[in-house]
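G., the chain you wanted modeled:
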Amino acid sequence: MSLNLADAKAALARSRRRENPAYEEVDAEPSDPSYINQEARRSTRLLEPASDTQLDLDHIPDPLLECGCGECPDHVDPLGPNSMFKVYAANICENPQPMTLEKARKVYLSYKRAEMNREGHTSDLEYVKGLYGNIMDAERQLMDEIDSPSTLFLSLRQSPIREDAGRREWISPLRLCERLHSPWKRVYDALRDGTSEFQRWEYITVTSYTRSAATPHKHILWYVEDPDDELSLEVGKTAVRRYVEANPLASEKFHPVNEGESDAAVIEHDVSRGCDRVDESNYADVLAHRDGEPFKPNSEALIYMCSQLSSFVLAHIWDGSSDIHRTSPLVDGSVIDWASTYDTWTSSMGFPY
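Predicted structure as tokens:
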């Protein structure tokens, strides 16, 4: 088999990345590259100008915009001298621009630490802990209400880079968020149509970020009342195909759907429960809330999804046990989630949250 010139250049570029000390080999999640220059990735602005979308600066949190005119005073920079986090470039600059991910990360850490130390204020970490518990309780209620539930679990991913003959370009994080969420109606329609004959269906989605490159991806858990185990993997195949067709950064290679395998779509008629991951004290709290009425633990799929809620990273920052605040792409993911206009999680109207 012969290689064309573009393939040869790409192979050479990959070889050089492996040998370049600026690149580190990562345990890459699907669609992420295996060798990453994290400094180059973080030098990407949260959003680059483009004419093919409706994204605009008005939806980015003010602290994540910086002066683009070069004339603003230093105190509008959240990391500058005399900054009080009260006046931002977004408020006074004629040409504010999104920060690089690296700078936005520093602002995020400063801002969120101040929030966590503010008396009488509910921090993001406190909020996400409460959210986690409420979602888990909602699923337990849903499982009680549905007769013989089956589930369809989907993982929709995308590449964070463009490559041309080995040259790599990192796509701005908010552009990635848009690419991920834009196909949702096509995916939803496929799932709704594929399960419309069942007595009841509900769903929940969670957007999370990869540990290797903070790439936004979406998990979907679709519940169906299915006493005869009729839910078919073909429903998942159709939904995944529509997502891949609609997102130019997604590929079939990273969205296999095969019976009996854990990949982009998984059917469970006998829903796996996460009892080995739940602390006994949590069981006691839930039993007390239910006046002693017994319950089944939550699904493994939902535990997996919700454990990836981005704000959980705040539980491991500043505790002195790691350099996660300096090195982890999970912090980048939390920054992107803060900047994004899209909801971190969504559910059907009948999901009893």
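The first helix runs from residue 5 to 19.

Shout if anything looks off.
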